[in-house]
Predict the structure.
Amino acid sequence: MDTNQTRPRILIIDDMAINQMLLSSQLGALAVETDCASSGAAGIEMFQKNQYDLILLDQHMPDMDGYKTFEKLNEIFRESGRSVPVICETADDSADAANRLKDAGFAEVLVKPIDFGELHDMMVRHLGDRYAAVGASASDTQASEEDIEEALHRLPSWLHSVPGLDVRSGIKRCGGSASDYLDALALFAASIDEKTKTVRYYLETNNDTINTLRLHSLKSSARLVGAVTLAEQAAALELAGKVGNHESLESGVEALIAHYQEIEKVLNDHLKNRRRNAELKAPISDETLSNTFSALRDAAEKEDFNTIDTLLDGLDGYLLESKEAVLAERLRIARRKENLEEFIHILDE
């Protein structure tokens, strides 16, 4: 790749940390720079502050969904006189869904889990010479069968015996990278508690519309890591929510949550390598958490990896709430990749 060329820059707007991580990793292999936003509002703010060549926008997000975010972006395009292609990511693979999104004005529709050959072809179409100038090639992200087999052999043996987990499927969706797959599993496990609590809350408050979005998120993240049985359960309940079958939601949610918690325990027991049992960990105070994040940001600005490692190890000694556990896991992934720009961005969200 020609590193003398300015790389294209893409904004990813997606509420799922797993999607952000995988897209950033694959686009990085294609010599494309990425910024990530976890909500429509955050994405709009980032677009107004920075220059981007293209936007990848998730259709289903809480608060501001893809349609509302796209409407706001179009207002900014008209007011500023500058616009970029906006590509919609969706898990709905029906022709009707694709037509609705195209009618709404999206430049293209990508069905999740995203095929990175299709992603490459889409960037060629919309970025043209701007993309080709850096020497990007679809072969940089296409995992061969040999790559997948090698990655499977590099995974810990216990992973192959986790019930309901299609490891090959997960590896393939992570571009044939064993390390990316393990990172995706760690993020998946860290997010389960918050996601399932939210599903139960909206079930109890009879808000089936929002619950359907939450179940969609559970389904998508399960598919990404190859948790096929969980994904099928979540998909069935998502459909029940869409057609207004509250009785089916009530009867199925607890079984779904129990299944998620079962796989969460298996993954956490192996992935987190805890030095102490979770039962022995003390909850972290708001002050300690705030001070730690502030110190992490300061260390990242100084490129002080030793201090970052010490602070992250310190966090591992506490029992974190689900949101903080996901944040800490994302920080560890950015640290392992030595991506301090992304590290600081995560802290600033």
Remarks:
- The CA atoms of residues 185 and 225 lie 6 Å apart.
- The chain has a mean pLDDT of 83.
- The longest strand covers residues 9-13.
- The two ends are 32 Å apart (CA to CA).
